[in-house]
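Q: Predict the bound structure with magnesium ion.
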Amino acid sequence: MRILVQKFGGTSVATLDHMRKAQLKVVAGLQKMDKVLAVLSARSGETNRLLELAREWSPDPDPAELDLLVSTGEQISVALFTMLLKDAGIRARSFTGRQIGIRTDRVFGKARIRDIDGEIIAKALLDHDVLVVAGFQGVTDDGRITTLGRGGSDTSAVALAAVVQAELCEIFTDVEGVFTTDPNLCPQARKLERISYDEMLEMASMGAKVLEIRSVEFAKKFSVPVLVRSTFSEAPGTFVTQEDSRMEHVLVSGIAYDKDQARISLRSVPDRPGVAAAIFTPLAQANLSVDMIVQNSSHDGVTDMNFTISRKELPRAVRIMKAIQKDLGATDILYDDNVAKVSAIGVGMRNHSGVAATAFSALRQENINILMISTSEIKISCIIEDKYTELAVRTLHEAFHLAQPDVVSA
Ligand code: ASP
Ligand code: MG
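A: Predicted complex:
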């Protein structure tokens, strides 16, 4: 049996008109494959509306109740969409995450999928052609509803695709695919035909916003072929797949940026074993994820420890650091949130040198000061003042000739 998973994002289900466009994609999907699993987001704006509602009721809403509340957004979508499909004579049925057996851990608001009950799906497919599943949600072993974190419907879709061994997981959104950078910042941005999981992970983690990061991790782990495409056009989209030799010819595939950055600097901590552990363990225990870490070289037995974190998590992180400051022996804790990260990403970097130098020279020419640098095999990231983000993105896009298709750029 050939199964297609199709995920429709918030804008694709926002109105009756938009849902009808999504419906056409499901019909087209059924022509190509035997069965379709349609995974839906909440209608655009709905999740935010529900979150605001909760804040009106409670300054610090109970996490389990908050999840029950926000999960209703997707429930509305699946019920409405299934009505349309049934009126069109399609054998369809709606499912909440719980009904389809998506079991998660108990981390409310950021739950991880543990397993999905393939039997429920197999049984439902006996007498339905389309299962319409609420994304973003699951259930704990003791029956509490959880949500998977913002953008989590992508993860629901990819996880379902892995479980049913779908031929393809199509992610329908309001853009035509993955671009070399954000077209809103840089009009020269070009749509990529394909991108590797690893590149996509870097793009997604840095605010490329098309695919939620966990969904890409899942796709990579279970080799789920993903196709990002638009509900509102026939454009072919971007494949997110295993790396192939074509990709290596291109040094840099994309420029990502992330304004959701804040930096913290612990001054003059003693340079001895265990210091990093003492700093980052309590952050991890509080479920705060640290992004870039730079430890200065030590002088006179002390060093500065610098790291970045999501802006909204800055107050919590600072509180945690202040609590351990004395034990740690840090003289000062400095922090600011007017920084941003720009990154050049490409699997081609693995086999070529000089990419970092090209990036730094380009930024230098625009007089953009680099505050922190980190590199990996396929990525160079710089923290800069956030007011220069647009300029930096355009400059790097230009420096690596990303507007021209598949030019080897150094
Ligand atoms: N509705 C949820 C959100 O806005 C999940 C999703 O759309 O993927 O984050
Ligand atoms: Mg999304």
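A: The chain has two domains: 3-174, 255-399.
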